[in-house]
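Technical note accompanying the year-one report. For the benefit of new consortium partners, we illustrate the data format agreed upon in the data management plan: each record pairs a sequence with a structure-token string. No post-processing was applied to the example shown here.
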Amino acid sequence: MRRLHWSWWLALSLLTLLFIFVRLPASVFGSIIAAKTGDKFVLAGTSGSIWQGTGQPVVEGQALAEQLTWQWRPKDLLKASLGYDLKLDAGQAQLNIGLGGISLRNADLTVAASPLFKLAERTRAYGLTGQLRLATAEMHWPTPQAESQLSIDWRGAGSSLAPSVPVLGDYRIGLTPSGKAWQLQLSTLNGQLVLNGSGKWQASEGLAADITLQAAPGSGPALVPFLNQVGAGSPEAERRLRFNFR
């Protein structure tokens, strides 16, 4: 019987590996994400494969959203990247992963604010709630490009330290590229608590920001428990927070 040439064995091996890779279950995504984040972020209840599947994003036991759905775009291999169409509940985005980093396009995604604020010890004590809406036409990470832009709206913001004020307000964080960093600008859209601030976010250095907080006219007494957690002062006095996350 004639022995197969080595090239046939190579082809068979590659086909076997390709078959295994194509059939990798969606839980592989969850395992990779959990390992990279120290089990802080997981995909629960995954189904499907790494090419097309669903799962629920969960941060330290709290759901960020109800369902994340992904669909692979094979044509993006021509650009030397893995491309996916994402749906997060009613929101959607286009994700690309390549040698140059990660890019997000045409994104409009909303997640629960509470699980993310609890990740940082500095913000955990405030019991912050609400929804975070991320919107961008195009964003690149870790190095922003000139066309990159991003806005994050914190809607229906609340705090367990101000139970008599169901909604503190609505706020917006705008991010614009500046060299290898992102410049941040925080502004108040409306509400009983006025927040303003600025900062810088860079992959190699983390996030640094200065924020001022002040009760809107007539809202001081109801916000005293919250404001005193930030710093001492009269109900109407301005408080200042400085963040430095690495």
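Partners are asked to follow this layout when depositing records. The longest strand covers residues 128-141.
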